[in-house]
## 1
Amino acid sequence: MPGLNPLTLAHTLMLREYLSKYPRENCDYTITNIISWGQIYDNHFLIYKERLVIFNPKYHYILFPLGEELSVLELRELVLSFRPYYPNAQIILFPRDYVERHPELEEHFVIDEDRDWADYIYSTQSMVELRGKKLAKKKNLISQFRRAYPEYKVMKITDDRLDVILKFTHKWRRERDAEGIYLMTEIKAIENTLNNWHKLPVEGIIICLNYKIVAYSIFSPQTHDMATVHFEKFDPEKKGSAQTVTWETARYLSGKYAWINREQDIGLAGLRQAKLSYLPDRLAPFLRSTLK
C-alpha cells in the first residue's frame, strides 16, 4: 500500500512525539508495546493528514489515529484507502469520548466493545495501601512472604540482569509445561523487550532471595500520570511472591504515577479473576468498528 512503511526502533522518537501530545490510556498505545509486540505482528505506519496511523497487517487492524481529531467521514475515507490492499481493514480502539461526541458515527460504522481486551486501571495509592476487607488476603500474603523471607531484596533491572530474567522466564514456562499461541507470543515479546532494553522507555524491578530471582516486573510510561505494567513473572513455590511483586511495583511507581494500567485479561477466566480481585478503579474499553 503506498505510504505504508514498516514501524521499527528507528521510529521511537516519532512515536514519543505523537504519544506525548496525544496520550491514550489503552496499553496498545505505549512505545514498548508498539515495538515489542509490533516486531511480532510486523506493525506498519503511515501519516494520514498529519496524523500517525499504526497498522497491524496480520489482523488488518488500524489503530485509531494519533493527532488532531478527524471527522467521521475522514475516518471512513481512511478505512476505504486500505481496503484494496487489506479487504478486512477496520479501525480499533475508538476513544469512548469520540464515540459519545459523534452520534453520526452510526451512519458509517458499527461500534462494538470487546470486554476481553479492556485494560484494567488502578490507583497507584490503592495498590500500595491495599485497604479494606476485599484486599485483606493480598495484604496477608505479602506479610507472610515478608516474614518468611525477611532478607529479600528489590533491585532495578540493569544490563547484567537481563540474561537472568530471560532464563527465569523460560524456566517459568517449562515448569508449567505452558504452551499456547498467546503465551508463546508473550514470551517472544518479553525477549524483544529485553533485547531492545536501552532503546525503549522501559524499566523494571527484580525480587531476589539469596541471590536468586523469585519475581520480576517490567513497565513503562503510558501517559504523564500513568504507567503500564507489561510483564510480571514469579515463582509459585514462594507463597506470596505474586502479590509481593505487584505491591513492590506499585511502591516503586508511587510518587511518579497516579495510575497503573495492568493491561487486559484476554478472556482468560483465571486472569480476569486475578485482575478483578485488585478492585480496578475503571476499565479502558476496547472499542472496535465495522464499516457499514
## 2
Amino acid sequence: MQDSEAKKLFQWVQRHAGLSRRKAQELISTGEVTVNGSVVTDPFAPLAPSALRSLALRGHPLPMEPPEPRIYRHHKPDGVLCSHDDPHDGNTVGRLLRMEGFIGYTWAGRLDRDAEGLLVLTNAGEVVNAFTHPRYEVEKVYHVWTSPSPKPAAAPRIFAEMRNGIADDGETLRILDGHLQGRPVHAVVRLAEGRKHEVKRLFAHFHLDVRRLLRVTVGPIELGDLKRGEATRLSRVEEGQIFDFVQSRLAAH
C-alpha cells in the first residue's frame, strides 16, 4: 500500500475493527479512537499508510491487517440492551461481547431490550450494511405472544390488514405474511422493513399487547436450537453462503 492510498480515519477503523461506517464515525467523534497513541476526533482526517503506526479502539490495539471476516449467531436474552455501552446500564450486548472476546464485532439488526432471539454478530462491515439498511429488504421472522391472544376467527383479517399496510405515526407498517400456531397460540410474522418497534406497533393497532417477542431468522440465518446467551460461529460453508447473499443484495441495489 502506497502513500497515494491515503484514507479517511473512519475507513481505517472500519477496515481494522470490522465496524459499520456510521459506528466507526461515531466512535471516532466521541474520542474512542487513538492514532499513534493520540486521540483523534475527526472521522474524516486523512491518514496515509506510512503515517499509521498504531490504531486503538477503546484502549484495545487493532491489528494492522484486515481481520478475518466471521459471522456468528447469538441468542440475545430479553432484558439485555442492544448497545455497545450505556452510562446507566451495564447489561448491554457490547459488554457481553467484550467479555467473550468479540473485539471489533457488532450486530446486524438490533432487538429491543425486552425482545429476545437471533442477533447476527460479525466483524464484516458489508454484512452489517446489507442486513440493516432498509433498502436491502432482508427478511426477518418473529414469534409473537400477545395479551389477549388473537382469536383464530379474526386472524385472517388481522394478517390481511397487516399485509396491506397499517398507518401509524406518519409511517406505513406492513408484514409479508403471518399465521397463528402453537399452544398457547401465538403469531408468526415475516417482514422486511425493520422500522422502530414495528412488530409492537402493528399488533397495538389491533389492541394486542406484545408480551413476548422472539426473532428466529434474519435473512438466511436461523436461530435454531441456540440457547439463551449462547453464540456460535457459522460453518465456513454457511459463511460463504452469507457473503454470496450479501454481495447479491449489494449488487441488486
## 3
Amino acid sequence: MTTELELNWTLGTPGLLGLAVAAVALLLVLIIKFRVHAFVALVLTSLLTAIAAGIPAGSVITTLTSGFGSTLASVALLVGLGAMLGRMLETSGGAEVMTNWLISKFGEKRAPLALSVASLLFGFPIFFDAGLVVMLPIIFTVARRLGGSVLFYAIPAATAFSVMHVFVPPHPGPVAASGLLEANVGLVLVLGLLVAIPTWFFAGHLFGKFVGKKFDLPVPNILDAALGNGSSKDDFKSSPSVVTVFSLLLLPLILIFLNTGLNMLGSAGVVDPEAAWVTWLRLFGETPVALLITVLLGMVLLGFRKGKDKTLIETVVDSALGPVCSIILITGAGGMFGGVLRASGIGNAIADSLQAVGMPLIIAGFLIAAIVRLAQGSATVALTTAAAIVQPAVLADSSLTAFQVATMVLALAAGSVFAGHVNDSGFWLVSRFLNMDVSTTLRVWTVGQALVSVVGFVFVMVLYGLATVLA
C-alpha cells in the first residue's frame, strides 16, 4: 500500500485511475498489436507501472517479486499437482471412462450440464484454479468425443467453479467478509448457494452455449504432450473403473472439506482449533497436501496396482509439468501486475472516493468491490477491501437483520468478481489452458465474469428486498 512503500510522489484518485487505464492499455497493445509474449509484456508493464506510480527505486524489484511470488505460492503447487493428477487420469484412460459414465447418465445433449454439475460439487471446497485443472482432462475428452467448440464445454464448468469460489463459504473471500461484517457464516452459505446456482445457469450454462457457437475453438493439446523416454501413452493405459476415477476425484474434495469444516467448527467454538488432532487433520486438508496425497494414490491405483513399470509412472507424471510451466509463469506475472496496482494505492483511492458519494449501502458496497476488482485484479482482495470499508456503517446500523447482513456480504462478493481481465491471474490461467488469445479471452472470460457479477447482484437484491419486506 502507499503508506507502506512511501511513494516518491502522490497521485490523486484521477491520476491513479488514469495510470491503471494506461497500464492496461499498454499491456494490451504489447500483446495484441506487437505480439510480445504475455510473460515478457506483463513483466515490462509491471516495471513501468511501478516506476510511474512513484514506488521508490529501491522497492521496485521487491514489489514486483512480492506480487509474483505470492501468486506462485498459491498457484504453482496447485497447477503442478493438479496437472499430474489430470495427466494420469487422461493417459490411463480414466478421463474417457468418466466421460462414458457421464454421457450414459445425462445423455450427449446434456454433457455440458453434467460437467457443470460435477464442477459445482467439486467447487464447494476446492479453489477455482485447482478444481479447473483437475477437471480439464475430462472436459477435453468430452469435447473431443462430442465435437464442437471447447468453450461449449469449458466455460459452463469454469463458471461453476467461479461462482462457488466467490459466493459460497468456506472459500476465503466470503468467509473473511462475513467475519468483518459479523454475518452468520451458515446463513451466508445457504444464501450463497441460492445466488450461485441460478447465476451459474444464466452466466455459465446459457452464456457458454452462446460463446460456444460464436467462437469455434478446437480442443487444446496442452495436456497431450508426448511422454518421452521412448514411452507411448498406450503403455500406461489401463481403463480404470468408474469407482477408481471417482475416488481420485472425490478424495481431495473430502480432505479439503475436512479442513474447512474443522475451521468452521473451531470458529463456532465446537472444537478447540489449537488441539493437536484438529491441526493435523486440517493439515491433511490443505489444498496442496490434499492434491499431493491424491497424486500419490493415483500413482498407486493407476500405476503400481496395474503392474506398470516405475520408470513409466515417473515419465507420465513428469510429462505433465512441461506444458504447464508457461501457464504458471504467465499466471505469476499476472499476479505481479495486480500486485503493483495494489501497491500503488489505486484500489483504496477509488474506494474511498466512492464511499463519500452517498448511496444505498448495499449498492455502494457492490460498486466499491467492482471498481477495486477492476483496478487491482484480485477478487478476494476486492471483497475484503470493500467489506472493511463498509464495516463501520453496517455494524452501526442496528436495524439490519441477520438476513440483510448476509445479503450484504453476497453483494460485495458479486462486485468482487466483476470483469476479471489482464491484471487477474485467473484470466491468464483460463486463457492459456484453453489456448485463447487475449482478445478472445476478453470477449469470453471477461464478459462472462461481468455477467456473473451483474446477474449475481440481481439475485442478491431480490433476496435483500425480500428480507426488507419481511423485516
## 4
Amino acid sequence: MPAWPQVGASAPGGAANESQMQTPPPVSDEAYSMELGSEARSNYLRAGLVINTAYDDNVLPETGTEPISDVSYTISPTITFDQTTPRLHQTLTYRPGFTFYQHTSDLNEVDQNLALGFQYRLSPHVTASVTDTLRKSSTAFNQFYALSGGAISGSAQSSLPPVFAPTADQLTNATNVALSYQCSRDSMIGASGALTILHYPNPSEVQGLYNSNSRGAAAFYSYRLSRAQYMGVTYQYSTILSSLPSSQSKVQAQTDSETLTHTVLIFYSVYLSPNLSISVSSGPEYLDLSQYPIPPIRSWTPAAMVSMGWQGRHTSFAARYAHIVSGGGGLQGAFNSNSAGASARWQMARTWTLGSTASYSINKNVSQFSQSNPGGHALSGAVTVQHPISDHLNMDFGYMRLSQSYPNIGAVSNAPNANREYVSISYQFARPLGR
C-alpha cells in the first residue's frame, strides 16, 4: 500500500518535499488512478442512484446448455465517503444492485459491492493501512473493470486472471494489511499481508471451475536514486488452495490442489514527469505444487512485470504486462500465466468522456500430466461514453465483450463468447466534508 509521506505534484516524481519518498508502483498494491484532473477530489460524501438496462447475447440459465439472449434491468443505490485529515485517510464505497431479467427470471439477483480503506500515519515516517473489498456478483459485466480482473496495478499479482462463467453467482473478498517506514532520507521498508477468497455458491452453474482461498505476505526495500528514480527489492510469499465448489463432494480431498510460491523481484521505477511513471520488475520464482494424483512439482522459473501510468487533466492511461506462475482464478493447480491489460479515459469535450479497457491472458498448466485441464486464454474489452446532463444527472452507454477458450471447462465451453450493450442513467449529489 502507498506510504503516507507521499510527495506533491510540483516536480518529477511529485517531489515537493525532498525528504519525503514515494512508494513505487511495484510495491504499492494501489491501482493507477484513472481519474481525470478535474475529477480528483477528497473530503466528500456522495450518494445517488443508478438505473441500467442492458442487452446480453449470452444468458445461460442453470438448466440450459446453449446461450440465449435477454434484456436485464438493474437498480443500484450508491454511497461514497472519502475523508482526509493530517494523519488519517478513510474511504468507503457501498453499491448494492438489484437485477431483473425480462425473460429468464431464474437469473434475477441481488448483488453487493463494498470497499473500505483506512490509512493512518502513526508517525511522520510510519504509515499503516487496511483495505477490504467484497463483491457478490451474478455477472461478469457488473463493473467496468471486472473483465480485466480489477483496475490496472503496478504490482505483481499473486493469483491468476479470473475465468468467467457469464451469469454465475460468485463471492469474492480481498483483505490487505500493510505497514511502511521511511527509515532514512532515501530509504524505505515495508511489509504487508493479504487474504483473498473466491467462492461459487451454486456448483451447478460453474461446471469445471474451482473455489480458491489464498493468503500471502510481502516485504520490500526501496531506495531513491534521485528525485525521479527509485530502485529496490521485494519478496512475496503466497499459498493458494483450490477445491470443488461443492463441499459435500465425495472426491473433494482428491480434487484439492495447493500452490505455494516464493518470489524475489528487483524493481526500478522512473517518474518521467509528475504524472507519468514507468516500472519494471524481474526476478526468480519458486513453485511448490501439491495436486492429487500427480507427483509434487517443484521448480524455479523467471517472473517479470512492466507497467506504466499517466494521469493528465483530460487524458489518463495505464497498462501492464505480467509473467508469473500461480493458481486460483477458478482453476485447479498451477499455471504459467502471461497477461496484459490497459485502461484509458479521454475527455473529448466538456461534457463527453470516452473510456475503454482491454485485457488478454494465456494460462498453461505447469503439469504435463493434467490433460483434463490444460488451460486456455481469454480476451475482454469494454468501451463506454459518459455524458453529464446536469450537475447531478449523468448518462452512460457502452459495449462490452468477453471471449474465452477453455475447452475442458463446461461453464465456459458451452458459451465461450458474450456481448453486452447497455445504457444507464445516474443521479448523484455530493456534500463536502471539512478537513
